[in-house]
Every structure is written in C-alpha cells, then in structure tokens.
Amino acid sequence: MTDADKKAYIAAEQCILKSPAKSTKMPGAKTRWDEFASLHQIHALQIHSTGQFLPYHRYFLHVHEFLLAECGYKGAHPYWDEPRDAGNFPKSPVFDTTLGMGGTGSGTGACVQNGPFKNFTVNIGPGFKTQPRCVNRQITNALSSLTNKAAVDKALTPSTYEEAWITIYNGPHLGGHMSLAMMNGDSITSAGDPLFMLHHGFVDKMWWDWQMKAPEKRFSEMGGPNAQDPNTGFLEFQGGMEQESAMWGKPTTAMLAVTPDPKNGDPGNTVTLKHIMTSLGIIPDATVGDVMDPSGEYLCYTYK
C-alpha cells in the first residue's frame, strides 16, 4: 500500500469505530464497529474449530469491506504478510504509530498506548459480555514462528479441505493470535481490535493459496462440522465447551435470539456449499458457495 492508501484505510477504520450503530439486533452494540465485533461474538461457537472457519471469515472480511466503503474508503483491503515478520513481530512496520496499527498495549487492560486506535472504546466483550473497554493487545513473539514460510508451507500441504482448514487453524492462524493477544487474547471478541482484519486477511490468503494449487477442485471443495463438538470446543484449549465457558461465559438470551442455526442451508452436520452465512442485516446473507472463489462475481478480488 502507498502511504496515502494506508492513511485512507486507517481513517476509514476510525470512522467505523466512531459511527453510531444502525441496528438493534446486536446486543450491547453502540457503534458500527461494535455491530461488526458483535457478529464475531454471536457466531463464535459456529465459526471456530468448524468447517465454517475459513468461509465465514472470508465473508466477515467482505462485511468489513462494506463498512470501509460506508466510510468513504475506495482502496483494496490489506492483509499482513506475516512470514516477513515471523520471529520479530514487535518490529514490524504494521505497528507504525502513524501509518500502521499502533504498537503494543501496557498497563491495566493492555490498552494500546499510541497510534490511531489509542483512546477508542469497544463495547463488545470480554467473552460473551458487553461492556466498554479499550482497544488492547500484547505483541510478542510467543508463537510467531508458526507464521514463518516453512510453517505456512506445511499448513498448505494437505490434499483435502477437511485437513487444510485444521492445519491453517492450528498453525499460522493460531500462531498469529497467540503472539498478538488482541482484546486480551479473547477468542470470542478478538475482532474488536482493527489489527484482527490484517491477520485474517493473511489467513484468507493462505486459504486462497491452498485453493490455487488445484483451483478446478478446491474452489468447490467444502466440509467439516458446522458446529463445535461439545466435547472438544475450541481446538486450541483443553477441555470441552462446558469447561471453556469458565473463561468467557455463555451467550446471553439476547445473543441466542439472533444466533443462526449452525445447520442453516445444510442437510446435516457437515458444512456444504449451500450453507447460509449472515451478518444480521449489515449486508445480505450469502452462501459458502458464493465466497469460494474470491475472483468470482460475488467477491471480485484477488491477491498479490
């Protein structure tokens, strides 16, 4: 990105963070950004450790593009090429205080201390709560080696989608999250930090890279469970869903009222191309099939 593009992108992110909410569907949301972060919170138990992981987050990026456009941004959606900075995340230009996301947090709550998102409030989280808190993160090299080229290449070796979503999830995806600890490392609401979008742009590109190894097959290959196994929950944590709920609570009645059926569009317990994904009205619903090929009619983008 040019410096001008970076400034325009950051200004649009700030605009989303400041713009008032337009819907009453997302519990606790006060801003447009809250609505966006709430989507991740509401869907959390369906889009992590499931076959929906990659297609829903691709759709989520598309929702973000729409919100950027609402705020006047006309450029491409960026991603962080994390292998370039693997092993040295804190020194990445991504954390520049003027043309980047700002640096790490410190003090109580690990609030970011500089950059464009200092002093902003997000009202979604922690976990399934809805209370005001700062944009926060803790940048380390804890598992950043899992985002290096060798680790990425390894994650992209599986021959089937059923295997690939798991190696991407448990490898570079998890390595990035563990090294950034966005929103206190909260798996439910880490999307409250704008840095999340650069990380998941990278995750989406990995899926695209895997698809491009055999596009005639992989742009239509889907699978995996459409909801978490109660005995497993999140793959990255010990114990099942009940034990994990001790970390972040359980969805409220208001959240459950707008949470879609995890089988929406599917004939059974496996994610299919007909699975329906929703943003609860921010943009129209889409199927998994709609987002399989980024260069197709629905998304219309490619990676460089």
TrEMBL record:
The entry's keywords: Copper, Metal-binding
Domain of life: Eukaryota
GO molecular function, one term: oxidoreductase activity
InterPro entries xref list: Di-copper_centre_dom_sf (IPR008922), Tyrosinase/Hemocyanin (IPR050316), Tyrosinase_Cu-bd (IPR002227)
Tyrosinase copper-binding domain mapped to chain residues: 193-204
Claim: Metal-binding is one of the keywords in the record: yes
UniProt-recorded name of the protein: Tyrosinase copper-binding domain-containing protein
Organism annotation: Pseudopithomyces chartarum
Source taxonomy: Eukaryota, Fungi, Dikarya, Ascomycota, Pezizomycotina
